[in-house]
Specification:
Elements (H helix, E strand, L loop, with lengths): L2 E6 L3 H12 L4 E7 L2 H11 L3 E5 L7 H9 L8 E6 L7 H6 L4 E4 L4 H13 L6 H11 L8 H8 L4 H11 L4 H8 L3 H15 L4 H10 L8
Parallel strand pairs: 1-2, 1-3, 3-4, 4-5
Helix pairs in contact: 2-3, 8-10, 8-11, 9-10
Length: 223
């Protein structure tokens, strides 16, 4: 399978570099480039890429709002969105995840890590940089009005006891391997639990599971 990518980056040198790296991969093809937010939204709708690589700072429409329009609630069969950011704009990451992003990566990460990040979210296997993501979500969770605690508990009660335990560990930023070690179960068993959790809570991926856990109060920032 060839992963079709849309690269959204306003800095031309960075965008050209991303395109060159992705196009050099045997399993990737860049089908479009956008230098501003409105173009990103238009091209995503027209080209239907598998993955959108989205910069946070985009002229015309920032990366968060562009992500929401491309992959947010109500969008049918949305692409995966990988948000790239820098250390000094990490306050926006939580909002980007809520907007529908499937993961994020720091902009100064090695190019090989960028390529692996695309493959990771394409598979839907895990949340990128889970420990860092939890820190960011914990830091900014108080900026978002929580979902009804009663509704959250009602949904949480649908999960089996072991599924609830896995969800709490996901929200703490653990990878599948770390969860397997923590619970003394196999990696494949963890993947099965994660799939069941996402299906029962009607969530797209682990990113949404983490956000859901914090917004409902099932997991607090001090857990």
């Amino acid at each position: 399978m060839t992963v079709r990518l849309l690269v959204c980056e306003d800095e031309e040198l960075v965008r050209v570099g991303y395109v060159a790296v992705f196009d050099s991969q045997p399993d990737m093809e860049v089908v479009g480039e956008a230098a501003d937010g409105p173009a990103a939204v238009e091209l995503a709708a027209r080209l239907e890429p598998d993955v959108v690589v989205m910069d946070i700072h985009m002229p015309g429409l920032d990366g968060i709002e562009a992500t929401r329009r491309i992959a947010g609630p109500g969008v049918v069969d949305p692409p995966k969105v990988l948000v790239v950011t820098t250390f000094n704009v990490d306050k926006y990451v939580y909002e980007a995840l809520r907007a529908g992003a499937s993961g994020f990566l720091l902009k100064d990460a090695p190019l090989a890590e960028l390529v692996n990040a695309v493959r990771t979210i394409t598979r839907g296997e895990s949340l990128l940089s889970p420990a860092v993501t939890r820190t960011l979500i914990g830091r900014h969770a108080d900026r978002v009005r929580p979902t009804s605690a009663a509704r959250g508990q009602e949904q949480f009660d649908v999960l089996a006891p072991r599924e609830r335990e896995v969800l709490r560990l996901i929200a703490r930023g653990m990878s599948n391997v770390e969860i397997a070690d923590e619970m003394v179960i196999s990696f494949e068993t963890v993947r099965t639990y994660v799939s069941r959790i996402l299906a029962k809570l009607d969530l797209r991926d682990r990113v949404q599971a983490v956000v859901w856990a914090y917004r409902t109060g099932i997991v607090g920032t001090d857990d």
